[in-house]
């Protein structure tokens, strides 16, 4: 048992059990010579995540200010843990709750909100921020149009970082007896890092943000990644970029940028080697913490905040097939796709959807003859590049004939090519492609750590040519 664990605490309400989460030392995945690494187990909170703290604090704050009154309705635009936290608080304090979620939100997540008695309103996920159907806009309208409605607004609500400054930071300080030297946390709204970081900085602690590799907080190009709930990418359709008001970039000393492969392999070893079943953003935080710990040396004490449990990611991060098909894991038996493909070509020509026809034709001229060009989500520049982000479609040179030079290629993209993981067994990949009968392409994209790095002809994998 832990040092404090005789009989367990006794509470009047489930809400009293929010916060005061245990701190657990990592024993087996921290290399010799590194700093101690401890994790703040936020998933042990009754709603299952770090967001219980913010949810409860925002509600209490709104009750105090009179913005939320008895019989009122809590409204938020969220598909994630904040919704679950708010749904729990609403149930325990007798409020109605309405959540606006993007239509791609999994059935399980919607069911989780409804299980607490909340209402769920679905809206298209991929619309510009000024569209009335946009998640946050629609939530604002519902709150304004509902008598007694109150919008929680976690991205701009100061009670969100405030609770971490009042509780998470001081808890970490007390639990380490003031020995903590580094705090590492991911940034979603920025509430955790800004709040806990503010408190701990005042005590001389170095504050480190852990961010997915391409995300904006760490200076990336804004293309999306697989790890959910942390980081910030460019709006998929418009390329616009609005940072949450609660995130204060002045609080952290630096940002560690962590690739998906690193995050997800760390999640796997936390489960298999430490007995900690946690979500993807916890992998990002621990991967960054291990880096910091190696640098800081044995006298330092690093604390990473782990936001949620792995139970809601069993069909993704903990599914070996899911990982292998995306190039995160090798198949048990070979030969594998990368043995067949041989050394990768220098890069894969990709075009953001907002690239003009003229720019793509010029790039194709420079690159020499090739097949279809994968079309990717917009990002900071519309330039055709050689990197390998998220593929949403493809254009063949023939598709560009007769188009105006200033037209955007995204509007003329056909379906994306099929993908295979670089460590997938060649036989399994070929069988899967045959079964999927992906129409117009004679090439497939090869994924390494979730990102396309090259194309290969389908017949080289031994399947039927398209
Ligand atoms: C799983 C997970 N990780 C990390 C975060 C980021 O926390 P914050 O919003 O405090 O930055 C969230 C927030 O929703 C989350 O759900």
TrEMBL record:
Signal peptide: none
Names of required cofactors: pyridoxal 5'-phosphate
Domain of life the protein comes from: Bacteria
Ranges that cross the membrane: none
The UniProt record lists the keyword Protease: no
Alphabetical UniProt keywords: Pyridoxal phosphate, Transferase
Domain Tryptophan synthase beta chain-like PALP: 15-308
GO terms for MF: transferase activity
The enzyme's E.C. designation: 2.5.1.-
PROSITE patterns assigned: CYS_SYNTHASE
Keyword presence, Transferase: yes
PANTHER family: CYSTATHIONINE BETA-SYNTHASE (PTHR10314)
Designated name of the protein: Cysteine synthase family protein
Taxonomic source organism: Pseudonocardia tropica
């Amino acid at each position: 048992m832990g040092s404090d664990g005789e009989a367990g605490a006794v509470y009047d309400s489930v809400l009293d059990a929010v916060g005061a989460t245990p701190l657990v030392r990592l024993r087996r995945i921290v290399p010799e010579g590194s700093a101690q690494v401890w994790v703040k187990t936020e998933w042990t909170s009754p709603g299952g995540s770090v967001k219980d703290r913010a949810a409860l604090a925002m509600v209490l704050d709104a009750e105090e200010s009179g913005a939320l009154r008895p019989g009122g309705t809590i409204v938020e635009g969220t598909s994630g843990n904040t919704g679950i936290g708010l749904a729990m608080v609403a149930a325990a304090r007798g409020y109605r709750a309405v959540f606006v979620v993007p239509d791609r939100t999994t059935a399980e997540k919607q069911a989780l909100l409804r299980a607490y008695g909340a209402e769920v309103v679905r809206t298209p996920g991929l619309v510009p921020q000024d569209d009335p159907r946009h998640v946050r806009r629609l939530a604002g309208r519902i709150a304004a149009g509902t008598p007694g409605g109150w919008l929680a607004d976690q991205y701009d609500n100061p009670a969100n970082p405030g609770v971490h400054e009042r509780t998470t930071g001081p808890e970490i300080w007390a639990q380490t007896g003031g020995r903590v030297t580094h705090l590492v946390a991911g940034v979603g709204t920025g509430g955790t890092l800004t709040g806990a970081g503010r408190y701990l900085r005042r005590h001389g602690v170095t504050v480190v943000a852990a961010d997915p590799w391409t995300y904006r907080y760490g200076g990336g190009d804004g293309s999306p990644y697989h790890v959910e709930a942390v980081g910030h990418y460019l709006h998929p359709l418009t390329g616009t970029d609005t940072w949450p008001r609660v995130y204060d970039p002045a609080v952290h000393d630096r940002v560690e940028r962590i690739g998906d492969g690193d995050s997800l392999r760390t999640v796997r070893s936390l489960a298999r080697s430490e007995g900690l079943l946690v979500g993807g953003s916890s992998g990002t935080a621990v991967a960054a913490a291990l880096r910091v710990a190696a640098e800081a040396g044995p006298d330092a004490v690093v604390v990473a905040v782990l936001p949620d449990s792995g139970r809601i990611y069993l069909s993704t991060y903990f599914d070996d097939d899911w990982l292998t098909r995306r190039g995160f894991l090798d198949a048990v038996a070979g030969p594998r796709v990368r043995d067949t493909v041989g050394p990768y070509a220098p890069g894969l020509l990709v075009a953001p959807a907002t690239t003009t026809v003229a720019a793509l034709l010029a790039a194709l001229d420079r690159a020499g003859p090739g097949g279809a060009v994968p079309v990717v989500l917009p990002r900071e520049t519309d330039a055709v590049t050689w990197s390998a982000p998220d593929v949403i479609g493809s254009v063949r040179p023939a598709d560009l004939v007769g188009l105006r030079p200033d037209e955007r290629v995204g509007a003329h993209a056909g379906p994306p090519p099929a993908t295979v993981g670089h460590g997938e067994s060649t036989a399994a990949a070929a069988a899967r492609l045959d079964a999927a009968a992906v129409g117009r392409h004679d090439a497939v994209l090869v994924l390494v750590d979730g990102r396309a790095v090259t194309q290969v002809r389908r017949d080289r994998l031994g399947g039927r040519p398209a």
